Amino acid sequence: MAQIQREPGTTLSDINIVPFVDVMLVLLVIFMITAPLLESGIQVNLPKTKTVKEITQAQIIITIDRAQQLYLGKEPVNIHQIGQKVLAKDKDIAHTPVYVRCDEQVPFGTWALVVDTLRQSGINNISVVTKPLNGEPRTQ
């Protein structure tokens, strides 16, 4: 190992970057672990299907979690106000799809009630969000 030669009575003025690199690596690991958790604010086990269409544009997402709580984006909402709030988010709702993310443990009746409430508000472009069975989506 190379030794730095210095005269007695002088100070060592080199910067030790090893602690800096250690801290950066720890931060990198922390961000790598937490980034997938930030994907969606509401935890939902989506049902798995063979055909999945990837979403590439900005969209309106309604989520029904396992406790049958309803969210518009990340904001909790009452089922009686969901139609009004979706219509307030987008003026051209006929061409903008509304995606419904529903936990696979939620009864079908709850999902049907949400879709029916949206349709009563005049929203007919409704799609269901699912996960691919194999891991790689097949688009329709």
Task: Characterise the protein shown here.
This protein is an alpha/beta fold and 140 residues long. It has a domain at 48-132: Nucleotidyltransferase, domain 5. The protein is 27% helix and 16% strand. The protein has helices spanning 18-34, 82-89, 108-120, and strands at 48-49, 60-64, 70-72, 75-76, 98-102, 126-129, 131-132. It has a five-stranded mixed β-sheet, with helices on one face. The longest helix is centred in the N-terminal third of the chain and has 17 residues, at 18-34.
In the sheet with the most strands, the strands line up as: 4-3-2-5-6
Helical amount: 25-40%
Tally of extended strands?
7
Average pLDDT:
80
CATH topology (level 3) name of the domain at 48-132 = Nucleotidyltransferase, domain 5
CATH architecture designation of the domain at 48-132: 2-Layer Sandwich
CATH top level of the domain at 48-132 is Alpha Beta
Shape: elongated
Count of helical segments? 3
The radius of gyration is: 25 Å
The structure class reads alpha/beta
The end-to-end distance, rounded to whole angstroms, is 62 Å
Given as residue ranges, the uncertain stretches (5+ residues, pLDDT < 50) are: none
Topology:
Layout lengths: L17 H17 L13 E2 L10 E5 L5 E3 L2 E2 L5 H8 L8 E5 L5 H13 L5 E4 L1 E2 L8
Parallel strand pairs: 1-7, 2-5, 5-6
Antiparallel strand pairs: 2-3, 3-4
Would you kindly provide a brief summary of this structure?
With 140 residues, the protein is an alpha/beta fold. It is built from 3 helices and 7 strands. The longest helix is centred in the N-terminal third of the chain and has 17 residues, at 18-34.
